[in-house]
Amino acid sequence: MIKYENPNGYIEITNNYFSHLIGHVAQSCFGVTRMVSSNTYQSIKSVIKNKVDRVDVDTTDQGVIVKSVNGQLVVDLYIAVSYGVNINAIADSITHKVRYSVESATDLTVAEVNVHVAGLN
């Protein structure tokens, strides 16, 4: 949970909100095929959710890690990209789009967006 103060009081935003917001933004970028689990916990959680629900589960929060460092956000994204696309261009596009979306939605500063390409489709 990230908590910050504005002139009207305190605002608390959950990491779940950031994960879904950033996941949707990243998946909307050209060349991104899917989000990839960043750790074994997310992988196991996804498998169990799919088995229990027996439906296609929204996995946009997979592969998104958000941390608050000195009042600024640090975002790590784990993605899979399409074969034959320029990975540098995709990473730059995601970085700019995530930074703009988060800063306009929350008024928080995004210090870093680290894009990790963990798969190729």
Question: What would you note in describing this structure?
Answer:
This protein has 121 residues and is of the alpha+beta class. 39% of the residues lie in helices and 35% in strands. Strands 3, 4, 5 and 6 form a 4-stranded mixed β-sheet that branches. Helix 1 packs across helix 3. The longest helix has 20 residues, at 87-106. The mean pLDDT is 84.
Write the layout of secondary structure elements.
Blueprint: E1 2-6, E2 9-13, H1 15-27, E3 32-35, H2 40-53, E4 64-69, E5 72-81, H3 87-106, E6 109-120
Parallel strand pairs: 5-6
Antiparallel strand pairs: 1-2, 3-5, 4-5
Which geometry do the CA atoms define?
globular
Structural class: alpha+beta
- Kindly report how far apart the N and C termini lie: 34 Å
- Largest sheet report: 4 strands, mixed
Strand content: 25-35%
Secondary-structure element order, N to C = EEHEHEEHE
Low-confidence stretches: none
The rounded Rg comes to 15 Å
Mean pLDDT: 84
In short:
It is built from three helices and six strands. It has helices at residues 15-27, 40-53, 87-106, and strands at residues 2-6, 9-13, 32-35, 64-69, 72-81, 109-120.
Supply database-style keywords:
121 residues, alpha+beta, four-stranded mixed beta sheet, two-stranded antiparallel ribbon, 3 helices
